[in-house]
Amino acid sequence: MNDLVKINWSDSIAEIQMDRKPVNALNQELIQSIHNAIDSSTEQGAKGLILSGNEGIFSAGLDVKSLITLSETEISDFFHLFWGLMGKISKSPIPVVAAITGHSPAGGAVLTTFCDYRIAAKGDFKIGMNEVFVGLSVPKIIFKAFARLVGENHANILMMQGKLMKFDFAHDIGFINELVDMDQVVPRSFEWLDQLVSLPTIAMNSTRMNAKADLNDLIDKDLSMMGDNFADNWFSDEVQIRMKEIVKSL
Fold first, then answer.
1. In the CATH hierarchy, which top-level class contains the domain 5-183?
2. What is the pTM of this model?
3. Lower Cβ count inside 10 Å, N or C end of the chain?
4. Which residue, among 59, 61, 60, 37, has the nearest Cα to 50 in the 3D structure?
């Protein structure tokens, strides 16, 4: 596909592997590459998709070092692209599994939230929405997507505090569906999808979409405005000060 993603096929299942070393930080090029890989795989007849990372890291989230240098117009374009990827995953006509191969804070966790199923590696890894920690508010769509998996109480407390979760805890509260050995994360994702797509296609996919109809309705209603709203928030004094502190620490 290109140097930022790899597409690995097994029968009718396509694995889209992020490969922007060292930590799959989400910049515009990587996000666009994932968009393109989803589109091309679906057009080629994939019945299911897997989004994966590299051993020890799924994605470290947004590439703050590059984003801090962008203009307001560029930031707005970036967030429109990122929110569009959230919507594309959530509304995908075929099921999407997140193969969480390691740490997945912030933007990485956001992408997994909109997948249909999450299989993660056993180990001392963390995942979660720590936007508040870096000075950003959590949009309603992301809160709703997370809350439908873990319940509103867990979602409210974790997001309000900007806390990351250890994988064991994320599994206990229902965010991660399965924990397996690292070398089994991707194979198990293929296996789970193989079993799912063997079911009657129309019935399975229509039921899948019915189950998240409320979320997708909210995406249709609010997504077009989120890029502008988040861009405005990005340039607030609070966020800029916090982001510059983070960049210095990297």
1. alpha beta
2. 0.93
3. C
4. 37
Looking at residue 241, what is its pLDDT? 76
Q: What are phi and psi of 136, to 5 degrees?
A: -105, 145
Q: How far apart are CA 118 and CA 177, in angstroms?
A: 5
Q: CA 208 to CA 117: how far, in whole Å?
A: 11
Q: What share of the chain is helix, strand, coil (3-state, %, to 5)?
A: 55, 20, 25
Q: What is the DSSP code string of 108-169?
A: HHHHHHTSSEEEEESSS-EEE--TGGGT-PPPHHHHHHHHHHH-HHHHHHHHHHT--EEHHH
Note the pLDDT tens digit of each residue in 2-28: 689 999 999 999 999 999 999 999 999
| Secondary structure letter of residue 54 according to DSSP | B
d(CA 121, CA 177): 11
How many whole angstroms separate alpha carbon 181 and alpha carbon 179?
7
Tokens describing residue 72: 């307001």
Q: Which amino acid is at 107?
A: G
Mean residue pLDDT across the chain: 92
